Request: fold
Amino acid sequence: MINKLVGKIKKLNAPVVVGLDPKLEFVPEFIKEKAFKEYGETLEGAANAIYEFNKGIIDATYDLIPAVKPQIAMYEQFGVEGMIAFKKTVDYAKSKDLVVIGDIKRGDIGSTSAAYAVGHVGKIKVGSKEYVPFNEDFVTVNPYLGSDGVNPFIDVCKETKKGIFVLVKTSNPSSGEFQDRLIDGRPLYEIVGEKVREFGEAHMGDEYSYVGAVVGATYPEMGKILRKIMPKTYILVPGYGAQGGKAADLAPYFNEDGLGAIINSSRGIIAAYKQDDYKKFGEEGYADASRAAVEFMIDDIRKGVGL
Reply:
């Protein structure tokens, strides 16, 4: 799947991923009203509103972008109905030939981690039949329980030709409380980066590994160091836009071939119609506002990085 992701990035010259992290407050009133009329003001109604919202954004942007990244917590908060909306969103995105990165941040030990991997990027046998439960192409993985929390994902991904993005240096303000701690004189995130490179060497695609890394846009100097540590690792970069990351700061995340990084924007795209620059589209045109925001993001990154 890393080969498909790299191929789509090359074809579109658009190293971007749209984060489908919907809050109910982001969903235009006309979508909520329709869902609530059919399902009531219920968890099912909320989940259906979110799915219809996602569909509109996917329809408006799929020809511009290589991938989407649904954040599972935004669906889990609506319980079982929310998880159905998550699955429907994954399936709809894949029907548009988008690569789907499931932002699940799982990481446990042994059989528990294996079960997460099977559920999201693997297959499970039930009697004589085999099923693909959630069917994302990549998932995010928390490595801080050690190798036995990551290896089960890699094992499953080898079977299904799918991949993972391992949290290395995250974009949130308090990430340094642990990730920047010095171990034998070196920050922990560097040690994790070296381990990710090691993981990746055992699961390579044509140009890059199926084992990627998450490194926040808010820490470009650290990104520069990690790029050197992990030359064949694709870096998923959150934090652009709403979290303060700027296009001019993104160049260190890319290799000389112009590849190696994919930049995420979530609410800056999906809630664009609420921003002053896109208010002209109105609520009815929320999807068109998202498209315009994607076009701006792609152009901004191309100029900032020199692609």
In short: The radius of gyration is 19 Å.
